[in-house]
Design brief:
EC number: 5.4.99.18
Pathway: Purine metabolism; IMP biosynthesis via de novo pathway; 5-amino-1-(5-phospho-D-ribosyl)imidazole-4-carboxylate from 5-amino-1-(5-phospho-D-ribosyl)imidazole (N5-CAIR route): step 2/2
CATH topology: Rossmann fold
Largest sheet: 5 strands, parallel
InterPro entries: PurE_ClassI (IPR033747), PurE_dom (IPR000031), PurE_prokaryotes (IPR024694)
CATH architecture: 3-Layer(aba) Sandwich
GO molecular function: 5-(carboxyamino)imidazole ribonucleotide mutase activity; lyase activity
CATH class: Alpha Beta
Number of strands: 5
Oligomer: single chain
Number of domains: 1
Structural class: alpha/beta
Radius of gyration: 16 Å
Keywords: Isomerase, Lyase, Purine biosynthesis
Order of helices and strands: EHEHEHEHEHH
C-alpha cells in the first residue's frame, strides 16, 4: 500500500471516496477505513503507529466537526498527513477547517479545502511521485487531460 485514506465516520464516505476515485484513476495503491479519533482512540493509535511498517507513504484523513483525526494521526507518525475538512450542517465545515489547519508548531497537517478529498488524493499522489516515475507520468497525463478539457470548452465559446 502507498496511501492510507481514513475518515472519522462512514458519513464522511461520500466526500472521502473522491480521494479513492482519483487515486484509482492515477493507478495509486491505497487502503481506506474508518478510524474515529474520539470513539476508537486505541484504533487510531494502532493505525498511525503501524502505518509506516505497512508501507503507507502518505495518510489522507477526513473529519468533520471537532476534526481531531488528522492532527492526532500526525502527532503519532512521521508520515505526511493531509487533512480533509468535511462540511458539517451546523457550521458549514468551518469548524472542521479550523480544527485541522490550526496545528501547533512541530505537528504539521497539510490541509485542503472543505470537502476537498479529490485534491487531497492528487497531493498525496504528487508526494509519492517524487520517487515513483510511473505515478509521475500518470499525473502528467492527468494534468494534460485537464488542460485539454479547458481548451475544448474555450473552443466551444
Amino acid at each position: 500500500m502507498k496511501i492510507g485514506i481514513i475518515m472519522g465516520s462512514d458519513s464522511d464516505l461520500p466526500v472521502m471516496k473522491e480521494a479513492a476515485q482519483i487515486l484509482n484513476e492515477l493507478q495509486v495503491d491505497y487502503e481506506m477505513t474508518i478510524v474515529s479519533a474520539h470513539r476508537t482512540p486505541d484504533r487510531l493509535y494502532e493505525y498511525a503507529k503501524s502505518a509506516h511498517k505497512r508501507g503507507i507513504k502518505v495518510i489522507i484523513a477526513g473529519a468533520g466537526g471537532a476534526a481531531h483525526l488528522p492532527g492526532m494521526v500526525a502527532s503519532l507518525t512521521c508520515i505526511p498527513v493531509i487533512g480533509v475538512p468535511v462540511k458539517t450542517e451546523s457550521l458549514g465545515g468551518l469548524d472542521s477547517l479550523y480544527s485541522i489547519v490550526q496545528m501547533p508548531p512541530g505537528v504539521p497537517v497539510a490541509t485542503v479545502s472543505i470537502n476537498g478529498a479529490k485534491n487531497a488524493g492528487i497531493l498525496a499522489a504528487q508526494i509519492i511521485a517524487i520517487q515513483d516515475e510511473k505515478i509521475y507520468k500518470n499525473l502528467e497525463n492527468y494534468k494534460k487531460e485537464l488542460e485539454n478539457m479547458v481548451l475544448e470548452k474555450a473552443m466551444k465559446m
